[in-house]
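Deliverable D2.4 — example input (structure tokens):
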């Protein structure tokens, strides 16, 4: 992966997330290890070129590094620990998943032997880890090289992304991506519900109405939601609200009361308690 690291390093301007000439691709870096802390992961694929990360759900732990890749099928409030190795900064390529591209590729793959190799087991997964094979490594390197030049990125970038997604769809663990792209699967229904929560997190939610909006029974909705996100609907909403509030406090410099109100809390004292329990610090300590 040394060539990948060399090319990715040329795209780094600062710590954190660095944009590229393709809006759906960014490069992340951090010089220091990070303790386990809450973080919302967006729908996408993460290729860890250097260093290691551990992702914690309420029931499982997933580790990804230069040997594998992480696929997030739906937005997930998780807990993340970053590990710097050999005093070299963490470097990762982050790539969005476009449902239209998934649909296009899956339609092309229908009836081929490739689909038969995909494990048809648990399709309702919010995330999975898969081996980084040579085909994926080769395409990823070509993507990083083309990102060095805006013209090359515009000409070659989207086709290489398509190639990467195709190789990931061929992986044994890729069943959730098929379920995500197809209509009326449990995972695609939960994705619709999560988009509603993401867009309207400050409003009061009725879980029964949310289940009805995606044509699921309340019991099936609860069961599938928990299976996909490792959280109940109410827990998921609370985590999204608290993460949004943290953004308001640290990036927008909102007051504690403003942050609480803007994410849907009626009681600032309740907001303070739940924020401290979730992040381990008081909200007031973040906007000083």
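Example output (designed residues):
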């Amino acid at each position: 992966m040394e060539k990948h690291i060399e090319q990715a390093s040329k795209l780094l301007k600062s710590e954190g997330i660095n944009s590229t000439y393709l809006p759906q691709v960014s490069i992340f870096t951090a010089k220091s290890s990070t303790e386990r802390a809450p973080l919302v992961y967006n729908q996408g694929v993460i290729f860890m070129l250097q260093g290691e990360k551990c992702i914690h759900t309420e029931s499982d732990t997933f580790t990804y590094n230069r040997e594998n890749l992480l696929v997030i099928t739906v937005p997930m409030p998780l807990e993340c620990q970053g590990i710097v190795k050999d005093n070299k900064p963490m470097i990762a390529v982050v790539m969005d998943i476009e449902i239209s591209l998934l649909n296009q590729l899956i339609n092309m793959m229908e009836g081929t032997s490739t689909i038969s190799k995909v494990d048809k087991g648990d399709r309702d997964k919010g995330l999975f880890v898969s081996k980084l094979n040579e085909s994926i490594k080769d395409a990823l390197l070509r993507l990083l090289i083309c990102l060095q030049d805006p013209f090359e990125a515009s000409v070659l970038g989207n086709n290489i992304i398509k190639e990467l997604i195709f190789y990931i769809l061929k992986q044994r663990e890729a069943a959730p991506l098929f379920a995500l792209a197809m209509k009326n699967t449990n995972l695609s229904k939960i994705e619709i519900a999560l988009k509603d929560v993401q867009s309207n997190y400050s409003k009061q939610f009725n879980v029964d109405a949310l289940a009805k909006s995606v044509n699921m029974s309340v019991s099936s909705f609860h069961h599938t939601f928990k299976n996909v996100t490792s959280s109940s609907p109410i827990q998921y909403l609370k985590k999204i609200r608290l993460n949004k509030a943290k953004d308001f406090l640290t990036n927008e410099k909102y007051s504690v009361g403003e942050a609480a109100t803007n994410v849907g809390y009626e009681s600032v004292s309740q907001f303070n308690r739940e924020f401290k329990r979730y992040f381990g610090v008081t909200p007031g300590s973040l906007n000083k």
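The two ends are 41 Å apart (CA to CA).
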